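Reposting from the mailing list since nobody answered there.

I have sequence plus structure tokens for a pair of proteins and want to know whether others read the tokens the same way I do. The first protein:
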Amino acid sequence: MKHLLVLGGGTAGTMVVNKLRARLAPSEWRITVVDRDDAHHYQAGYLFIPFGDYDRKDVVRRRSRFVPEGVELAFGEIAALDPEVCSVTLADGTALAYDQLIIATGTTPRPDQTPGMLGSEWRRSVHEFYTLDGALALADALTAFEGGRLVAHIAEMPIKCPVAPLELLFLADAKLRERGLRERCELVYVTPLDGAFTTPVASDRLAGMLEARGIAVESDFVVERIDAAAKALVSYDERTVPFDLLVTVPVNMGADFVGPSGLGDELHHVRVDPHTMQSRLYPNVFALGDANDLPISKAGSAVHFSVEVFTENFVDHVQGRHMRRAYDGHVNCFIESGGGKALLLDFNYETQPLPGRYPLPGVGPFALLEESALNHAGKLLFKWAYWHVLLRGRELPLPAFRTRAGHGKQREATP
């Protein structure tokens, strides 16, 4: 019997085992998922915790609830991966051999990578919301915030959900206005990018939204350290951005075991073919979701669309056939803009975000590059879809591929 080993039981790992268990004969394939514990987190929900809209029970479920029958679930820290001998070693010394490997261990905020971030102001005036504990601590800080300089900051790209820091500022702006405190507050967005976002069209649109809300932008800011005593960000070109409350997005890095394996880049994201998610070094190794180095946003929709393509390819691969499908980098994301509205972006490797309607051209119901209450409702509805549909490998009526018309078209992979 052949063994498929999946490292990581998060969004990508859970989705793919649900899909593959139904496609790979149990008499021929053993499937094992490895993760550190039995807690599955809906990470997109962290954004709403600082504003009191969600709490712990909204974003955490038992991981084992979503792993299908016939898939083994093993708990333990991953200590090492040796792709030469097709073996993974856990921290307790357990060795797991595999025939095919899927790495889906995500990417993790690493505040230790920026000098001063974990200093005396950590979880006092310096916060993050990319972990559950961080989001809960920030909720207390924002409740106590009565005025001053609120700074949202990105340490380095790429990060999970690159629009989330913007969403935080839009929601903070709306909440401060609701509390009658906006005139006493200065909001600043600090980014290493040369604009508000990674694609020019979206960057222009989001820059206009920031300007309309009186949110300042400090671009091309590459942080060198955080001066806790002065309560200021300091860049490599010696610019400083003072703050009263800093909400930072630390450097995001892949799993530590990826580095010594030789599979990853300098941030431990696995180097893969951008269309098939296959390792560039080992044909029996794949990386899905935030764990890979795809040149596209690390977003939940990218996981969903890429796994749809990957599943068919993987079945072809293990049956000795050419992988016929090519993921085109399709991503869409709802951007909370405050006041019960949201913006929707839809793009891929080659196509910038365009105006129009999604998912049905001319019909919608969602508006692209426009703020609307319906888009906000779509973002909130996604939580239900995540727990009840996506994680379980069920189909959503959304095209995996992106075209200018908003419809998907299957493309052949480059041999």
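The second protein, same order (residues first, tokens after):
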Amino acid sequence: MDLLRFATAGSVDDGKSTLIGRLLLDSKAIFEDQLEAVEATSRTKGFDYTDLALLTDGLRSEREQGITIDVAYRYFATPQRKFIIADTPGHVQYTRNMVTGASTADLGLVLVDARQGLTEQSRRHAVILSLLRVPHLVLAVNKMDLVDWDEETFNRIRQEFVQFAQRLNVPDLAVIPISALQGDNVVTRSENMPWFEGSSLMHHLENVHIASDRDLRDVRFPVQYVVRPKSDEHHDYRGYAGRVASGVLKPGDEVLVLPSGLTSKIAGIDLYDEEVAEAFPPMSVVVRLEDDLDVSRGDMICRVRNAPEPTQDIDAMVCWMTRDPLRPGRKLAIKHTTRSARALVKDVQYRLDINTLHRDLEAGELGLNEIGRIRLRTTQQLFVDPYEQNRTTGSFILIDEATGTTVGAGMTN
């Protein structure tokens, strides 16, 4: 079975945590004692229904306030597919958490309250998902039971969002009406909305095509670790462990190693204790080369005639994640794939208003949870691709050298 990672987003109290609880419950992905504990807590709160949001709102402060603060990851599977859910917070002050949760997602699920329609937060999260190049987007119009399953309300919200999405880079968009609390159109089709001819949310998640989302053309293999057992049995074994970022690797392929520029051929590819005929993303493997080259952590194995251009000048969109503003002249550590270096912020070109998409060219700095375009100069060459081409080699994080705290997430362009 393949794996689908999806992130939920939307305004506060649109029902994200309740929806995930419903998915977990109806797909039988929770234990009886978990359900009993949630039912008991719901009764304690005075509810006459089971508050499924308690399955995901794990922090005490989240339960008390009824909002999501941290990113909650949940795992479940159906006979068709495995899933990893990132339940991301909706409040503007937790934008950085939302960026973190959605950065690896194959699909973004934006919820809106049918009574409220699209809000500023709904639009902001759609913009962020677009910036992160999440290839599939679903707008779930929730709480249809509170508008008497009205088709007119749904059509109005769908039309408004489709018009807004035309300004964004959204390759695949689906709009589905649901009631997370009652389970309508979540796992099974709803009898209350016979006018909707589309599939249920679960059917869409199980069948959305993600195989073609991965770049299988441009070979990128960042070396994470050099494997040298040094035992009598494997005294001459030398392999390079890592995770395939893109492309397909096969024994016999001629490859180039960056930054040395040396070439060799792949002698073999090992997965655990067996040799495999090919490796593709997101497999973690050990690659053996025919020649004994000087290859270490942070190097990149790629095709001879299809290699990223090594550079020390990086233009990128950055989400800033700390209260201390990002200003020109600041020095930070940068981590790109498995390669680490130091970086100087040369320029803050503009700050992006993610509600209106307006570029503030006079900003000069980025504050907490703000997104903007910056220019960096690094101490070492990095092997970057445009983020829209490769989300692994096109992304990086910025780290405060004094505290070791991650202060920014970047996407090259």
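Reply #1 (J.P.):
I read it the same way you do. The longest helix spans residues 151-165.
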